[in-house]
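User: quick one
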Amino acid sequence: MSLLRAQGLTAGYGPVTVLNAIDLEVNEGEIVVILGANGAGKTTTMRAVSGTIPRSGVVEFDGHDISRTSPDAIVRHGLAQVPQGRGTFPELSVEDNLRAGAITRRDGAGAVAADLQRWFEQFPRLAERRSQRAGSLSGGEQQMLAIARALMSRPKLLLCDEPSLGLAPLITKELFEVIERLNAQEGLSVLLVEQNANLAMHMASRVYLLETGRIVASGSAAELSADDTIRKAYLGF
Amino acid sequence: MELFLQRLADGLSQGSVYALMALGLVIIYRGTGHLNFAQGEMALFCTYVVYQCGEWGIPIGLALPIGMVVGFALGAVTEVALIRPVAKKSPFAVFIVTLGLFQFLNWLDGAIWRDQPLPNSGVGSVQQQFPSLFPSKDTDFITIFGADIKLQSVGVFVLVLALTGALFLLFNKTKLGLAMNAVASNAESAKLVGIRTNMVLMVSWGIATAIGALGGVVFAGINHNVNLTLMFTVFIYGSAAATLGGFDSPGGAVLGGLIIGVIENMAAGYADEWVGQQLKVGVAFVVIVVVLLVKPSGLFGTAKVERV
Amino acid sequence: MTMPFTLRSGGAASWALRLVAGAVLVYVMFWIPTQASNGVIDTCITALTLMAAAMALNLLLGYTGQISIGHSAFFGIGAYTTGILVSRYGWSPFQTLAVAFVVAFVVGALVSLPALRIKGVYLALVTLSLGLVFPQLIKAPKMEWLTGGARGLDKTGFKFTKKNPTYEIFGWNPWGNLRGENVKPFLYWIAMIIVIIVYLACRGVVKSRAGRSLIAIRDNETAAAVMGVNLAVTKGLAFGLSAALCSLPGCLSAIRTGNVTPDSTNLTVLGAITFLIVMVVGGAGSLWGPIIGSALYVFVTDRTGDWSDKEAIPAVLRPFFGWSHTPPGSGIFAVVLIALMFVAPFGIVGMWHRVVRRFVKVVPRPAGTGTIDTPATAPAEA
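Assistant: Done. Structure below.
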């Protein structure tokens, strides 16, 4: 069953249209990856889905039409975004960052505290730095914090915008393992934007190829890798 | 020694008023990066409302909350109707709007309550003087180390400490406070974790103006009357306090206010010949210029890329 | 889109329009002192005073983007320089203008030193406190021997006796016998000359290379510095010149009323705010903006000046303003100001340009100083 469905999604900045009527679908329990070169419109897609930029077309999430919903209300429907460049609250402590992530929850302080504990166990580096300002963390730690913060809202779908950007390969690998584990164990659906095709293809249920604002190919990771022209042109292996 | 203690007490109670003004400025600045030049006049309007309540026979204990509620509403409406729409255009437009609001409210106060200090038997005021929150007769003082400290000074100081404590709890222990901190830190990300940023900004302006209203009422009580120019200097002292403490630090604002209140009174007292009552306001000018030149982020503020 | 009219800048039609506008302006300029009543002339002097101050402020804010809410201090420097020199040392009022200009320039340049590091609303805060300090400094006991303290100074204007050298220019007396009827037109012409001086100074600066540096600073300081604009010198000069020009209407106010007090509106922060407001309403960053804004402000406040008396309000408007205990002029202007920020941030002049462009196509002058010829078909709207 589809969790997120976008039809004819068009978006851009001011007079410039970046995204040209794309169709997109994420089913429950899937990890869907959007691949594309710089400027293909990957980040714009994320922003259009999460409602942070003006957009047109239809976006449905979990049975709700969210085409005209404001970003904060979309989060309350259960869609959390990890923005590109992490977007943590630099002046707030690590713990407060996580608490801010849970600000939309209505299931009581106990449940929030339990989740807090859980992510601290999952990301021990964050536990060590729980009272430090987020701004003082390293890039990898901030990325983990951003993901943990998004997860604190107990989302049904996690949008991840280039989590590997600026991270050492080893940390990227660790991060992707966490995402895969959450997907396998919790059934968390993920929509991931990546430039690093190799890594992302590995865990993707399905893949969309984006080029200058249009989807040029889609299918399972295996299908796309099997197609020679696509593999050479877009995947680079 | 007694004189010193008396001046210290006077300074702290004056400084408490500046601290309240500075707190309001800081709460708004943290949320939106705007300096609200109408802060003093918004507080003044609420102070007039409290005066009017007194005329209608409402005791100060009830009139003050009414004034603060009016302040909250005034602040919230201002943010939604005036600030938010022009904030998209430019910071300069916001500056001009706050200045226009300054002029408008000052005119409105005069238009409703006339251009003279109130209460005033000449216009038929029932009250003898502006209602004070604390005992303010000449005999109401306590003696500490031989110095006669007015009960009013003690009361005002304690009030500000209590309010600071309450705000500390608000910012650090409540969801609203967390949301306000998050918006102050990164408004874009705050939206992405589901915080209703518009609501937070509206509430911030409301709280700031309500605190300003409290400051106005306290100051009018010390001053025994309310008049159209009452808040001019309080605003500039409050701004100096916020500059000194750091424009994004509520704790710094309170401390800055107290420091400036004390410096002002000491300067006027000990350097009477040079500073005196007339040039007290020069203290604010010097503090603002020196802090901005030497340490623009203030004592407790965080250095940020300037937003204007 | 075709427009009903096309106007070529520098062309015959353009010159004709300018000539007509100029002729009307000169006619009005001479009609007022010769035909209008003394009351009207007096109001016009008030307007001219405000115009000069607002234009001086516009040079700073409209063209370099530095915010000042303290220009009342420079206005006050002018008023007190004239006041002190005339009343204490018996100078001729005309001579004091030059001294005031220099003093205000120096003070303005000094204020600009912190302005090099302090920007935006912070600079507004600094200048605001300067504006608050100024009247207090005048009132300070230590200054009383010079400034007269809170009481101020009197006999600061012309002494209108039959043979008084103070209003002669090198022994030549073009004014005739200055008594009664003649005094107002005489003051009117002083005010007019000051406004023309300030206008020409602003125009000269704005149209010059220095003016382009100023605008570059306003639009992007870093880029301007990279292009070789000396920030410190340019900003300092702009601040100094703006302050110096603002002192001239201050001198005028001392000459006109014959006394100066530290609490008169134009010397307090409320005056500085008024300069700023009329400038923005008229149109910041345009030469005519402050002139139009000031004229409108004085017109409105003059028309509504006696509205605290209910009977004086026109019957149609009485329900709207009848409740007010004070004249509604400043309130009306504040509302206009806020409303303008929503619809036309560049004030009345900006709005006028927008309206004109819908009906008239203005073709820029081809390649006089420019680089690329603008094709005649280029759309006029930006």
